[in-house]
Amino acid sequence: MEVVNSIGRRKSSVARIYVKDGKGKIMVNDKDFTAYFPTEELQARAKQPLVIAEAAEKYDISVNIAGGGMTGQAEALRLALSRALVKIDPEKKPVLKANGFLTRDPREVERKKPGQPGARKRFQFSKR
Fold first, then answer.
1. Is residue 86 in a domain?
2. 6 vs 2, 20, 64, 80, CA distance in Å?
3. Which run of H or of E encompasses 10?
4. CA distance 114 to 33
5. How many domains are there within the chain?
6. Is residue 118 part of a domain?
7. Is residue 37 within 8 Å of 28, Cβ to Cβ?
8. pTM (2 d.p.)
9. % of the chain at pLDDT higher than 70
10. Is the pLDDT of residue 1 over 80?
11. Is residue 51 in some structural domain?
12. 79 is in which domain, residue-wise?
């Protein structure tokens, strides 16, 4: 198998991944996967497509992630992995789609408006 690449985004995070045949090694920004995502929850969230597609030990994955926080990065990686698995094996698409892994989460942070303390928050109203 040749190298399959894919991209995933979430909030302001962008994950570019390169998938090739291997033994299940995942490198994120030249670090080990478990060192980059320290909590079990983030690791599980990022690996969900591999677990559902039963491909956890089949591929070596190299990831470049930039922007955002840890949760956004983990979910960007999840989307990129899902897209790559569909490129490799189109028969996995219904399973991944049913779990919502092929849908990009469009929610972004709303901008702060001028003259107010936040995006929606307003200064306290004073009648007198």
1. yes
2. 13, 12, 11, 5
3. strand 4-10
4. 41
5. 1
6. no
7. yes
8. 0.90
9. 99
10. no
11. yes
12. 4-98
CA distance 31 to 66: 14
Phi, psi (deg, nearest 5) at residue 19: -115, 130
Q: What is the DSSP letter of 2?
A: -
Q: What is the pLDDT of residues 74-96, one digit of tens each?
A: 999 999 999 999 999 999 999 99
Can you say whether the dihedral through the CA atoms of 105, 48, 86, 80 is positive or negative? positive
Q: Which of 77, 84, 85 is nearest to 105 (CA)?
A: 77
pLDDT interval class at 2 (50, 70, 90):
confident
CA distances from 51 to 55, 89, 120 (A): 6, 15, 39
- The HSE-up count of residue 39 (CA atoms within 13 Å, CB side) is 6
- What CATH number does the domain containing 12 carry? 3.30.230.10
For the chain, what is the mean pLDDT? Answer: 93
> Would you state the pLDDT for residue 123?
93
Residue 54 is predicted with a pLDDT of 87
The tokens for 17 are 């991944």
CB 123 within 8 A of CB 71: no
Domain-located, residue 125 = no
Inter-residue contact 4 to 88 (CB < 8 Å): yes
